[in-house]
Amino acid sequence: MTSTLRALSLLLLLFPTIPLWADEGHHHALTQAEIGSVNFPNSCSPEVKADFSHAVALLHSFQYEQSRQVFESIAKKDPHCAMAEWGVAMSHYHGLWKNGDLDAGRVALEKARQTAAATPRTTAREKAFIEALGEIYKQDGGDAVAHDLAYQQQLSRLHSENPADSEAAIFYALSLDVSAPKTDKTFANQRQCGEILEPIFQQQPHHPGVAHYLIHCYDNPVLAKQGLTAARAYAKIAPGSAHAQHMPSHIFTRVGSWDESIESNQHSTLSATQAEATSSNGEARDQRLHAMDYLEYAYLQSGLDMQAKKVLDELKSLAPVSGLTHTGNYGASAIPARYTIERRDWKQAAELTPDAAAVPWAQALTWAAIGEGTARSGNLDRAKEAERSLASLRDQASAKKNTYWANQIEVQRSEVVAWISHAEGNHEEATSKMKAAVDLEESMDKDAVTPGAVTPAREMLAELFASQNQPSQALAEYEAVLQLAPNRFNALYGAATAAESAGNATKAAEYYRALMTVAKGDERPEIATARKKLTLAKN
């Protein structure tokens, strides 16, 4: 029995709202109390109207497989319901994750169009929803970014023409986040998303999509604190959704609230584990691995290494499933990399094995850990092999026309080159390469698939300065890291030691105290050091 399942009985006693997705192998039909309240007006037969709103509620929590099942059932009960096929097509469009089945979605979208054309009762509003989604499934040579933008523009028109239609507004708000450029550090689209959704949140506090999309739109270092209300509400709105249990941790991670992130992802992991019993593809496993990655991150920032090890062991115990997407690939690659690098176990990092079947940016996580681990433990030949592998993976991502992930991999390659230069004694080159990594990494925001980089490039730059006996520069960089990623364990400890080396005892004590506030137990040696330093400072 895995560690997650061993904890299941106890957690169900402590948190009885955790949903049971499977009952003796059968799918558990979720109630409105478990997935939130949605009212999506439609022209389908009266017998399926309630089912339609139920399916949209599932869709709003990205429970794609479950929503698809309900939409398909509606289409069988009412073959003239064009919007049922729209719902199926929507269930295949995973805009934020870019891991949907476009071929299947294209088939469903065409069925929606044909049904709408043949059914006089289909409204102009419904046809507008269908045609907007058609932008995603166009085969015109455009890339996903262009299609997302065209979809957003169509929804903007629908929203303008139907200002009282809250569902049009909610889907439009999400499209603003999906189409937001990763390099726009003003977060203009995300701000507009919030402006649309905040009033609806006041009017419809039990709507799952409103709270969910507010979290996504505020999932950045500038707006994160504005998302705390939605984050603390969403899991209560849709306790039957594994994704709804997880999503609050996007905000909790941004503000460094590790206890809340841990609780959120414990619940989500259990829900997704149960959902696997009735899942026919890899979607439930994707959700599980996604939550496990966030859980691993939070445990490591709390200094709870033994709990982090249990997550890693859980990952290793999982039987393979078919249909896993890059969301699951990323989590499965990130968890071992985080465990080794955050704990500075260079030998274990050097022994990691990349998953050759994973997408390039998931493989890159492992090669980056191998590169840093080998460079910092003296095996420079292997580190240089890792750098070459990262260059190849970067080029593969570029060939897929995925500039964002190609640039993310280039950040990792530059970091490995910097550590190799450092090991070779070329400190000026090491600093230059790491600064290039910092500039490129901070020109982009993170993707929704990850809680953040295994180690921020700027945190590595701070460590280079510390190793070069430049504590004041190191402290400045650590403090900059903590502005973007509050309460990171290694950044707090690094800031404390850099301040101490720079002769700033007051600031050193400040960061040691901050570390003691976020750290739990005595598992990390840094915690014992912080406690000792604070005791000496008092005497």
Care to give the gist of this entry?
About 70% of the residues lie in helices and about 0% in strands.
Top CATH class of the largest domain: Mainly Alpha
The spatial strand order of the largest sheet comes to: 1-2
CATH domain topology of the largest domain: Serine Threonine Protein Phosphatase 5, Tetratricopeptide repeat
- Could you tell me the radius of gyration in angstroms? 24 Å
Major β-sheet profile: 2 strands, antiparallel
CATH superfamily of the largest domain, by name, is Tetratricopeptide repeat domain
How many DSSP E strands? Answer: 2
Query: What sort of overall outline do the alpha carbons produce when their principal axes are compared?
Result: elongated
The helix fraction, in percent, is 55-70%
- Total domains: 3
Order of helices and strands: HEEHHHHHHHHHHHHHHHHHHHHHHHHHHH
Q: N-to-C terminal Cα separation, in Å?
A: 50 Å
Please mark out the parts with pLDDT under 50 across 5 or more consecutive residues, or reply none: 1-27
Q: Which structural class should the secondary elements be placed in? A: mainly alpha
Strand content: under 5%
